[in-house]
């Protein structure tokens, strides 16, 4: 009971961070911790002691500051929220809404989180724009033959999923410069010259936009039939140049505002990436802009390097494009790794002849539509965001901003908690955006900061409350230059001797405890490299407390004015003593096996010969044999079967050795014997092993058959009595 009282007292007196922060203004108080509040009441606290105006709200109320407490809290409210749509084929002229709300405002006090909820829905029958980007290098000639009528078959399948489907087409090879392509004069018109397996092909090119997105699938088929393969020099292709142009040239490609954007890249080799262009003398990084000519040819192929993965990811996300890698099996893992670096990207295995391309696209479409993942745009540096997803199973998943396994029409919810950890300059407003990957919809979040106190707007310059020499604000006087004191009643240069005694803790003690300067009856404490000096007479600090192994208050308390205020569960001058007795409880439930006392969470064994963490080991104790007897008897009853559940429990810390005779040659072994119900004497020895277990050497039972006479049993019992006498 006394231990509980000590823990309660330690918890009660624990130093709170609001009063220890020495805030000199309301704004400084708010910055210490979100639980801190400021009392702006003019007359506050006792005249005999200094009462901190910055404290926990409950303490301020107890000290008489009712109705004049400044403690703003973070908040969030919805500015715009249109309802979620149920279908993509809505009434003409109406936007399809897949995310709600669309605009939220948050007002943040540093350290104080506020939370709002958003919802995302993959609506039914949502329009789809699919741009087919094909590698036309020589190795893809078989694939080109197999997709001559792709448009018709693909449109038929996609219209089972959406009533509004459009298809576009583009192709790529690689940069038409050395060493990526054949540049010698004889290859200019036919890079396949001299290649016996396929002697004729078209000149190499970077990227060509061939067909804008259209619902006329016959145009797609017609354009595909016109295409001829080309030939580049090295194995990697220029596919990423083509992907970037297809993403950023929105008007030429024809991406619609209200549609799911799918960009399918089909290739049978690895891509060139940023810095590869240096091999051809291209040192200018890609600018991420559209560079298509009037003939829809990529014009910057020989001017800029290949785009980086980061740039690709940025531009694809900006334009809400889901990239689908359709690649051959031997390059699957490389492109799979790319998907981890480019959000909203999937990868599927393409057969060597592209015959599975339709099923591949259907699978990728289903995968994209079965998940929702939030992305954050333009997050301010002084904000922390925390997400909790609630998916279709109704369960909450903290620290997750992604839901998978959704069906078309399902709604995923996300709780977003926003926290500021600093205060920018006054009247600062930030914004950031939350957007599901691959969606047009977004949520705009407007951020303002609640870092000022309401009382700060009610200034009283040259206030009579401040002797006419200062500005009264939030219960305090801010003195004009050359004036000092709580009421600005003193002026620098005046005779200070009449005030000096008010800076002594007691008569005869040094001014401000020798750790500050006395000015107008007030102590201004010196700064210290060891910590903070404070108090009306600079008599306190937060570093002159008892330590344990060099750690102030053992790390289990706060140093307050030379005394450790221990956290709950610890006592002592340096808080090194735990009040927890669970660590002293032995396996039998007794504290220290009833052979000692629990002090600071550790057993102090008082029984001679007792040792162990809970004093559980004691070969010389009177009850040493009796504690082991239950194990021995159990084994004898069950014919020495240690796998019996009861015996296993009783003997779990014992190592059993069965012998025909006892030889007492171990000095540390204790001889134990007891009389059995059949008037025999059973013997065993007991010794502790370094491993912490006990070694029991047990005498075997007489090897008599059940039909033997009682006289024979007595003979064997007499034999054991003789052994006992010999050992003793």
TrEMBL record:
Cysteines engaged in disulfide bonds, as pairs: 18-453, 26-36, 29-65, 39-54, 192-201, 249-290, 391-403, 423-672, 451-455, 474-512, 479-488, 490-503, 518-523, 520-553, 525-538, 540-545, 559-564, 561-592, 566-575, 598-603, 600-647, 605-615, 618-621, 625-634, 651-680
Keyword Phosphoprotein (UniProt): yes
Domain of life: Eukaryota
Span of domain Integrin beta subunit VWA: 25-453
A GO CC annotation given for this chain: focal adhesion
Keywords: Calcium, Cell adhesion, Cell membrane, Disulfide bond, EGF-like domain, Glycoprotein, Integrin, Magnesium, Membrane, Metal-binding, Phosphoprotein, Receptor, Repeat, Signal, Transmembrane, Transmembrane helix
Domain VWFA: 127-362
PSI domain mapped to chain residues: 17-66
Pfam families recorded: EGF_integrin, I-EGF_1, Integrin_B_tail, Integrin_beta, PSI_integrin
Example GO molecular function: metal ion binding
Ranges where the Integrin beta subunit tail domain occurs: 625-708
Keyword set includes Transmembrane helix: yes
GO biological process: cell adhesion mediated by integrin; cell migration; cell-cell adhesion; cell-matrix adhesion; integrin-mediated signaling pathway; stress fiber assembly; transforming growth factor beta receptor signaling pathway
UniProt subcellular location: Cell membrane
Membrane topology: Single-pass type I membrane protein
Family: Belongs to the integrin beta chain family.
PANTHER family: INTEGRIN BETA SUBUNIT (PTHR10082), INTEGRIN BETA-5 (PTHR10082:SF26)
Record's protein name: Integrin beta
């Amino acid at each position: 009971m006394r231990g509980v009282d000590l823990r309660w007292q330690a918890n009660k007196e624990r130093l709170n961070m609001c009063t220890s922060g020495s805030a000199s203004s309301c704004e400084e108080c708010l910055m210490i911790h979100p639980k801190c509040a400021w009392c702006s009441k003019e007359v506050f606290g006792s005249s005999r002691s200094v009462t901190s105006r910055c404290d926990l709200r409950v303490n301020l109320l107890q000290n008489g500051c009712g109705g004049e407490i400044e403690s703003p809290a973070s908040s969030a409210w919805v500015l715009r929220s249109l309802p979620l749509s149920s279908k993509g084929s809505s009434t003409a002229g109406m936007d399809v809404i897949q995310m709600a709300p669309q605009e939220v405002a948050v007002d943040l006090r540093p350290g104080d989180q506020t939370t709002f909820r958003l919802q995302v829905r993959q609506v039914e029958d949502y329009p789809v724009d699919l741009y087919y980007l094909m590698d036309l290098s020589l190795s893809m000639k078989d694939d080109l033959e197999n997709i001559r009528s792709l448009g018709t078959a693909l449109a038929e399948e996609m219209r089972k999923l959406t009533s509004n489907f459009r298809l576009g087409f583009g192709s790529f090879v690689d940069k038409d410069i050395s060493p990526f392509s054949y540049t010698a004069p004889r290859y200019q018109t036919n890079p396949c010259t001299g290649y016996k397996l396929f002697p004729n092909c078209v000149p190499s090119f970077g990227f060509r936009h061939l067909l804008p997105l259209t619902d006329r699938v016959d145009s797609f088929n017609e354009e595909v039939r016109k295409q001829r393969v080309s030939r580049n020099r090295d194995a990697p292709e220029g596919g990423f140049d083509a992907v970037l142009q297809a993403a950023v040239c929105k008007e030429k490609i024809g991406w619609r505002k209200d549609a799911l954007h799918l960009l399918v890249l089909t290739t049978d080799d690895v891509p060139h990436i940023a810095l590869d262009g240096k091999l051809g003398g291209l040192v200018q990084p890609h600018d991420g802009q559209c560079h298509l000519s009037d003939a829809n040819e990529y014009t910057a192929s020989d001017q800029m390097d290949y785009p980086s993965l980061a740039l690709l990811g940025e531009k694809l996300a900006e334009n809400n494009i889901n990239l689908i890698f359709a690649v051959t099996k031997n390059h699957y893992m490389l492109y799979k790794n790319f998907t981890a670096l480019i959000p909203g990207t999937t990868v599927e295995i393409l057969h060597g002849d592209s015959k599975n391309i339709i099923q591949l696209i259907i699978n990728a479409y289903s995968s994209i539509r079965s998940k929702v993942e939030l992305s954050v745009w333009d997050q301010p540096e002084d904000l922390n965001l925390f997400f909790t997803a609630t998916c279709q199973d109704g369960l909450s998943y903290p620290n997750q901003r992604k839901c998978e396994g959704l069906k078309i029409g399902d709604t995923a919810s996300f709780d977003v908690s926003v926290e500021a950890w600093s205060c920018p300059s006054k009247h600062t407003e930030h914004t950031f955006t939350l957007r599901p990957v691959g969606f047009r919809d977004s949520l705009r979040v407007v951020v303002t900061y609640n870092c000022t106190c309401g009382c700060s707007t009610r200034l009283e310059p040259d206030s009579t409350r401040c002797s006419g020499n200062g500005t009264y604000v939030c219960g305090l006087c801010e003195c004009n230059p050359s004036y000092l004191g709580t009421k600005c009643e003193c002026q620098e240069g005046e005779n200070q001797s009449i005030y000096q005694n008010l800076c002594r803790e007691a008569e005869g003690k040094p001014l401000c405890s020798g750790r500050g300067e006395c000015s107008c009856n007030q102590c201004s404490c010196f700064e210290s490299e060891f910590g903070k000096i404070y108090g009306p007479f600079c008599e306190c600090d937060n570093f002159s407390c008892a330590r344990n192994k060099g750690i102030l208050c053992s790390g289990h308390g706060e140093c307050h004015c030379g005394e450790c205020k221990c956290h709950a569960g610890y006592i002592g001058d340096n808080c090194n003593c735990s009040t927890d007795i669970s660590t002293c409880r032995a396996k039998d439930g007794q504290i220290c096996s009833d052979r000692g006392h629990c002090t600071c969470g550790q057993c102090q064994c008082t029984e001679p010969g007792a040792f162990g963490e809970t004093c559980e080991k004691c070969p010389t104790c009177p009850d040493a044999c009796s504690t082991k007897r239950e194990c021995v008897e159990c084994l004898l009853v069950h014919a020495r079967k240690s796998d019996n559940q009861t015996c296993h429990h009783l003997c779990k810390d014992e190592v059993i050795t069965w012998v025909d005779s006892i030889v007492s040659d171990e000095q540390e072994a204790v001889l134990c014997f007891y009389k059995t119900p059949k008037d025999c004497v059973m013997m065993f020895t007991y010794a502790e092993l370094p491993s912490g277990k006990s070694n029991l050497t047990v005498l075997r039972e007489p090897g008599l058959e059940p039909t033997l006479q009682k006289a024979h049993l007595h003979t064997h019992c007499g034999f054991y009595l003789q052994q006992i006498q010999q050992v003793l």
